[in-house]
Amino acid sequence: MEAFSPTPLDLGALDSQWLAPGTKGLPLSVPLRQGEVAAQSWSLLDGDLSYPVAILKQSALEHNGRWMQRFVAAAGASLAPHGKTTMSPQLFERQRGAGAWAITVASVTQMLTAQRFGVRRVLLANQPVGAAELDAMFALLRDDPGFELFVLADSEAGLARLVAAARRARLKRPLPVLVELGWVGGRTGCRGPEAALQLARSVAAAEELVLSGIEGYEGLLVSGNRQADVTRVRDFLGQMLALLRTVDGEGLLGGAEILLSAGGSAYFDLVGEVFAGLEPLSRPVRRILRSGCYLTHDHGFYHKLLADMAARTGAGAAHPIAADDLRPALEVWAMVQGCPEPELAMLTLGKRDASHDIDLPFPVAWHRPGGPGAPQPLRGATIEKMNDQHAYLRLPAGHGLEVGDLVCCGISHPCTTFDKWKILLTVDDDYRVTGVVNTFF
Question: With a cut of 50, which residues of the chain have pLDDT below it?
């Protein structure tokens, strides 16, 4: 199968739309068409923007996209990046151009957004259950026969709702379904292989559906004991493989190929390694990794996890990983609004602008607008607290920051930063604005 869309996505309507004064991050006094943003020659470092502003470094996006595609190719896998990370059609287009096989989403509304912009193959990595959502999903499948959708099932009750909606829709093609394996205490998924096997039999027995494979999500197996986490992840992935062998042996699978999918952004190295060890089955197997955060990476949570991968793989591994193989592309820049105490600066950045669910933002650099040279490292500084629209930046003695200076903040967990911005700006390595990225949450 080809990439998730054979042609570039339809982004023309976004470039032609008007951005109004008050658009977050932009210094607009009159409306401006989005496609004209790059022509304004704005420089973040010269103070031309409205702060805070979220930016994406173009060079890092390009590097990360190429790197991940090389990794999955070397692992004999396909990439279906999780679109919920960014919900950005422009970034979906980057992933399509790099060769992604599908886009993964978490909800029917996200699936509808992806399809609206031209995505032709979607993996819905959840069991849809709402009647309105199910009817909308099947209406789309009826009205767009060339659109490919794969959904999950993780319970008999949920499956019954899926079958009932399929019968109401009277589709002429069966809906491909993957059974989700989970674990006791986990988020979603059948609670163990026996329950998953029984559900697989039920899916195969429903004439409105076709069992396409097995899915799981290992990314939540993160604790303070990293060695134990790796053991649990390997065990879980091994259960997925054993379940797939059993399902295949019982002749429950349909379709031209078998789908096997896992791999968030925390353990994609282990998923690639374990999945590569699956012996041939009754038909070709497509191994699908679903990492979404790789494209922008971060300065915190995923930065640490990548370092863990580097320590696991080592130079002698089949697919060695280095701690700097992925580069942080996402930054939020703020301005020093005040210095009310000698070692405290207040920034124009808060919980409405940057993620704070795992770590507070990381102050990494500063710059005086219009000043010479590149941004300077901001050593010894920490953000110790955030309100809705302010951050408390604790500084070392003699820091030299003044009101009006710019501070670059790295983030941890990009998913919960993207949803705070309707637009983000792309920049070159000199922080000159090159374009706009839209989000749809």
Answer: none
